[in-house]
Amino acid sequence: MAGGGKEVREGQGVLNAERCSGCGIKLQSEHKDQPGYIPAQAVQKEIVICQRCFRIKNYNESSSITVEQDEFLRLLSQIGGKEALVIHIVDIFDFQGSVISGLQRFVGNNPVLLAVNKIDLLPKVTNWNKVRNWVQKEAKDAGIKVEDIILCSAKQNSGFDRLLDAVAEYRGNRDVYVVGATNVGKSTLINRLIRDYSDLDQELTVSRYPGTTLDMVHIPLDDGHSIIDTPGIMYPSRYSELVSPEDLGAILPDKPLKPAVYQLNEGQSLFFGGFGRFDFIQGERQSFTCFVSGRAPIHRTKLEKADELFRTHGGELLAPPARVNLEKLPAWTRHEFRIPKNSRLDVFISGLGWIKINGETGAVVAAHVPKGIKVMVRPSLI
């Protein structure tokens, strides 16, 4: 192929000996959601940039790119040796699933701002001071030392002014690195930072982009520093990484959660569509509050009938997901927990939601979800 040695390998969408002029990533035209994607027809251009750099250059927008966990941690470890302000964005709906545990080991002594997104999903009567205190404790337990915690909502565009004030307060003479898992709203935050801090415009030339390694994209700021857009990390322990695209909308809520309270006797179970199951195995009659997407319908049954019900009606009565998608998921694994008396705890299922234990008399409970999904007991968020 003419034009600087560009070559597309037939049927594979791989561009040989060609890297993005904007970020330095090796170009490919097969996977839109992977680093370096470029439409095959675009390789004919004199200056070739990947789709993500193109969107930053022409629209002041960054799109979400993901990498596997090991690759992400390798990229993350580069930050420790730089002068940086780190913005770690997490999802309040999936906090333990989206937080980067041990972040401090990688970023060293660089200051960290914790941007807690999707607070619009919590009930409107939520005590925000308690949420902030809860986040602070959970972040500490995850090995993260934070300079400030900002509760925000990308969807409602709330809290971002406070975040920008914090960036101005803590940035000093540093670049800004934005890190986070997939589906936490990182691109929305990056795009807001671009609009507020960068002088990018339609006339920007590709040469303004400094070359970078792999798929970190440097977005130039007015003062000569940069916003560094890192790829989103994929945690396979999150339900949102397992489900099909059509089922993703069923488990990720798009409106405030409506707590569903169930009075259960021991020996009763709750199904959340066909995504998971909660068993009340032992204890006095008590209430349990479910915080899950309204598009994952809850079905109550007897524990003794639960296995057979799922076997015969999973993907049908117990749906979504449909049976064809349910069969693609790993087999369910059982996680049992003993809840002490007078404790305030949630059974948390990463990417699906949580069940708050309301009783004060103690209980034995269990959760059933596909193998590999993170399930844990944590202090109650609400």
UniProtKB/TrEMBL annotation:
Coiled-coil portions: none
Gene3D superfamilies recorded: P-loop containing nucleotide triphosphate hydrolases
Domain CP-type G per the UniProt entry, residue ranges: 73-236
Domain of life: Bacteria
GO function term, MF aspect, one: GTP binding
PANTHER family linked to this entry: GENETIC INTERACTOR OF PROHIBITINS 3, MITOCHONDRIAL (PTHR46434:SF1)
Protein name as annotated: Ribosome biogenesis GTPase YqeH
